[in-house]
Design brief:
Protein name: Kinesin motor domain-containing protein
Strand order of the largest sheet: 2-3-4
Distance between the termini: 34 Å
GO molecular function: ATP binding; microtubule binding; microtubule motor activity
Number of helices: 1
Keywords: ATP-binding, Nucleotide-binding
Mean pLDDT: 76
Number of domains: 1
InterPro entries: Kinesin_motor_dom, Kinesin_motor_dom_sf, P-loop_NTPase
Low-confidence stretches: 63-70
GO biological process, one term: microtubule-based movement
Largest sheet: 3 strands, antiparallel
Shape: extended
Length: 86
Amino acid sequence: MAGASVKVAVRVRPFNSREMSRESKCIIQMSGSTTTIVNPKQPKETPKSFSFDYSYWSHTSVSPGLGFQGCWPAPPCSLCGRLPVP
């Protein structure tokens, strides 16, 4: 397995009905290959950021600058053919 590597992808899914009924807030942000998690209970705490090979945003169908599920890296991604997350 010399030279083998693992690619890691992350996806932010839409809220399910339970999360919507509780009026949950999305605490995830994506920019390129970086995914950031904000702790709403500790707003002064530094957000946690992680980098992945592929980042998929599916939380909302229409977001500013992103009206589709995109991924990073691209354009277009060799796995899904979609454009990158801005």
